[in-house]
Write a structure and sequence with these properties.
four-stranded antiparallel β-sheet, 3 helices, Lipoprotein, LpqE-like
Length: 236
């Protein structure tokens, strides 16, 4: 029989190996669980767009918004329109055909200026239908229509949302169209036209000069005569 010291040295490496293996499995399981959690959290994230996003069965409405009028906005808002609608409807079903039947607003009516023929609003499997082009976006791949909201009264205002109800139909095997449900979207008004960048320094907070010297700034004297300095493109 081996001495006690020899038996202890023979057992110790085995215990150490078992402990190391146990720790390794725990770390591996912990890493796997964390990774799986991250995937599940990001899998259903919505795109970073300004409009509203809603799902109805296999249809996804994305970036639904009312476009800010490009011209004479105060008059357009005062008259309750006409406002152009922007949205994308994607059909993720690989076999079914859908059709956007109509859009019902809180007040007034929505007319399809382009796409008045219902056949133009059919969304084929794996395809999308869009209306309008929000500021900063480029959409060339979708089938396009133009939808316009009129007589909306005071239900449309910048900074608020208005309810638009999208009504869909689905094509049966015999070619007939049947109701496919509807969804109401709280629709915002977009931020308006992009403004041209102006690289002009402005005082964000009150300073000694604009508090006590009227319009006189750091580069001017109190008498209105500019102080000597370096001008852009000038000499030293």
């Amino acid at each position: 029989m081996l001495p006690l010291s020899a038996r202890r040295s023979a057992v110790r490496p085995s215990r150490l190996a078992t402990a190391a293996a146990t720790i390794g499995i725990a770390v591996a399981l912990g890493t796997t669980g964390c990774g799986a959690g991250q995937i599940s959290q990001t899998a259903n994230q919505l795109p970073a767009v300004n409009g509203a996003n809603v799902n109805i069965d296999t249809l996804q409405l994305r970036d639904v918004q009312i476009l800010y009028p490009e011209k004479d906005a105060p008059t357009v808002f005062g008259n309750g329109g006409p406002f152009e609608l922007a949205f994308v409807v994607a059909n993720s079903d690989q076999t079914a055909y859908y059709r956007l039947k109509e859009i019902k607003p809180e007040k007034g009516s929505v007319e399809f200026v382009e796409g008045s023929d219902s056949a133009a609003r059919v969304i084929a499997p794996g395809q999308a239908l869009s209306s309008g082009t929000p500021v900063g976006s480029v959409r060339d791949s979708e089938k396009k229509v133009t939808a316009e909201l009129t007589n909306a009264g005071d239900t449309v205002a910048a900074g608020l949302t208005t309810d638009l109800t999208f009504v869909f139909e689905k094509r049966e095997g015999n070619g007939s169209w049947v109701p496919a449900g509807e969804t109401t979207v709280q629709t915002p008004v977009d931020a308006g036209a992009e403004l041209e960048r102006q690289d002009v320094a402005r005082n964000a907070e009150p300073t000694f000069y604009n508090q006590h010297h009227g319009a006189v700034g750091p580069g001017d004297s109190e008498g209105g005569t500019p102080e000597t300095g370096h001008e852009e493109g000038g000499g030293h």
